[in-house]
Design a protein that fits this description.
The protein has about 375 residues and is α+β, with helices and mostly antiparallel strands. It is built from ten helices and eleven strands. The protein has a domain at about 45-75 and about 120-135 and about 160-375: BirA Bifunctional Protein, domain 2, CATH 3.30.930.
Length: about 375
Amino acid sequence: MHQIAIYLQNFIANINIISIFAAQINRTTKSIMSYLIKPEGYTPLLDLKQTELGIKQIKDFFQMNLSSELRLRRVTAPLFVMKGMGINDDLNGVERAVSFPIKDLGDAEAEVVHSLAKWKRLTLAEYGIEPGYGIYTDMNAIRADEKLGNLHSLYVDQWDWERVIRPENRNVDFLKEIVTRIYAAMVRTEYMVYEMYPQIKPCLPSPHKLHFIHAEELLRLYPDLSPKEREHAITKAHRAVFIIGIGCKLSNGKKHDGRAPDYDDYSTIDQNGLPGLNGDLLLWDDVLQRSIELSSMGIRVDKEALERQLKEEGEEQRMSLYFHQRLMNDTLPLSIGGGIGQSRLCMFYLRKAHIGEIQASIWPQEMRDECEKHNIHLI
């Protein structure tokens, strides 16, 4: 009996150790997989009804201005595409798509879209869109690998747009022209919000003050900071910044941030001697006291850039996929395109502290509880 008692004591002790270890792993995982910025003294400027009305007005007004600035027509977009065709986007190159079998197609797999960069280019060809014109769509997606927090949700809603260009447009000057047009629409939208809600004061600089900088120049400016810290520093200084060359390797041998190798052209050398015909648009957020990325866009790969970037990433096997074969066979137009986060844009304009104040999504219970303590009311 004495030996049995000792055995039971040891067994219980081991169970307790395992429980403690599991709890530690759980806490570590939670800390890794989510984050929460808690602005001191935060008080929403709008109640729930005003917020919902503001969201609708912002979306209606901005998409009308975006369409006018870039000469885009609205099209209907898919929520999912067939797996294995190379149409879905890998974003930074590592995110897993949510997939499911389709019974009526013999359990063939479909994937919920991450974004629509490649689909839009196929659609430009299908619609026969001419150079200087394009399309935009309301894109809804699920990103299951997203690190949840103030700016990141499982649910993604954005305006995805794509415009046909000519060979002579494949340069940084043309990229800057398009970025400035989009930013001008953002500035006009902020003034519309101010007219609706005078307590929300405009803070964006005028379009001609939008600051352009290459990721390599940013590295030289802040060599001791991390990429994210460099973004915060430059955006705090200029309030509206477009960083060029997202995805290319810099002089320190690292990328500023990742990009999948088969949609944005981040490797073509422009006349400035630096690689990249793409970038990210960042604004300074006074509520969170940090930069926020509102748009990612770029001139898309041509055949040469596609081959070069796939080779650099060791992804040459993708060349056999449907989208890539269409591009190599010259059946897709040259294009420029990007995405603009709808909820993030509304969050910025309405001076909210968390994207969950704008959209309905799933959040860790600990985050919900902590938000309530800090006057952040998640939908």
